Amino acid sequence: MALLLLRHAFTVPEADGDDDVSTFFSLFLLRAAAFLLPCYIMAWAISVLQRRRQQEAAALAATQVAFVLQSGQHRGLQFTIASGPAVSPHQETV
């Protein structure tokens, strides 16, 4: 991607022979911005879509848990939340 940016940014058309450094620099910045701005917008849009998908999955899981708890209460079932098993590091026996 960096090579594509450099190739795109450094192709400056031949001028009248009066090569000014500020002209090259401003053209380089303009072309770099024209290349990087769409890349930034696409990355931002992808991150928004991923965040929305994660929020929807969390909401669905919460709804399912609430449904299970509510249906169990109508039947007189009691639910308790237990902590997970304690994980200890494996010790090698000699």
From TrEMBL:
<dbReference type="Pfam" id="PF12428">
    <property type="entry name" value="DUF3675"/>
</dbReference>
<feature type="transmembrane region" description="Helical">
    <location>
        <begin position="27"/>
        <end position="46"/>
    </location>
</feature>
<keyword id="KW-0812">Transmembrane</keyword>
<keyword id="KW-1133">Transmembrane helix</keyword>
<feature type="signal peptide">
    <location>
        <begin position="1"/>
        <end position="17"/>
    </location>
</feature>
<keyword id="KW-0472">Membrane</keyword>
<dbReference type="GO" id="GO:0004842">
    <property type="term" value="F:ubiquitin-protein transferase activity"/>
</dbReference>
<dbReference type="InterPro" id="IPR022143">
    <property type="entry name" value="DUF3675"/>
</dbReference>
<protein>
    <submittedName>
        <fullName>Uncharacterized protein</fullName>
    </submittedName>
</protein>
<keyword id="KW-0732">Signal</keyword>
<dbReference type="GO" id="GO:0016020">
    <property type="term" value="C:membrane"/>
</dbReference>
<dbReference type="GO" id="GO:0016567">
    <property type="term" value="P:protein ubiquitination"/>
</dbReference>
<dbReference type="InterPro" id="IPR033275">
    <property type="entry name" value="MARCH-like"/>
</dbReference>
